[in-house]
Amino acid sequence: MQVETLSGGNMDPVVRIGGTVRRVSGEWTEAVHELLRSYESAGIPETPRPRGIDPEGREILTFIEGVTLEQAPPETRWRPSILRAAGALLRRLHDASEPLVARSVVWRSESHSPVEVLCHNDFAPYNLIVREHRLVGVIDFDMASPGPRIWDFAYLAYRLIPYAEDAAGFDPARYGSREDRLGELIETYGADFTPLEVRKAAARRLEDLAAFTERRATETGRQEFTEHAAMYRRDAERCRDGTSM
């Protein structure tokens, strides 16, 4: 059967074999598969289904057809319906994860306080799958861990409002002002976060991500990781002082 190397995979190689995805497994895999099964039980069709471990020791997940939102053209990536769909999906994932929060299991990423739900920890355009201008999936749950709802929400806001420096093709005249888009995302998720709380949480999230990315740059020698970390720190500063709003 043909093996296709998939894009992304900054942490570990990812391949597609038929209708499945194969990824490096680890001590965290059992917890992640339990989380994915909880989404299936909750009737959430947008997540991969775990199918065990293959003879090479890799986890097996179902493949979700489509392209990442990051690969989609601006008219798809920034359309308000995608923003609303992403906020609604994140809320469903968080709600479905609540019964698993108190379990003593191994996660690949560290937890963040206050623990409220299981966070995806990278709920962003490069992990969101779209087809025909519709959000149909979210992938890459291997970095999931317990944390507060706003930890995931603020990073989604950073990427889709957007506050990110590399938000190519965003036009507020066409897709809505950042203020309006943040209000819509908060309303769709169904939280009582204030815009200031979201921006402060985004800044904390970006500082954490910058430190992680700098460590990866040291481990791998990849210059682009150093550049990404520098961007995260610039964006964190803008989120704190409001200059990108």
From TrEMBL:
SUPFAM superfamilies given in the database record: Protein kinase-like (PK-like)
Gene3D superfamilies, per the entry: 3.90.1200.10
Pfam family, one: APH
Domain of life: Bacteria
Aminoglycoside phosphotransferase domain span: 115-166
Signal peptide residues on this chain, from the entry's feature table: none
PANTHER family listed in its UniProt record: AMINOGLYCOSIDE PHOSPHOTRANSFERASE-RELATED-RELATED (PTHR21310)
Name of the protein: Aminoglycoside phosphotransferase domain-containing protein
Organism for this UniProt entry: Glycomyces buryatensis
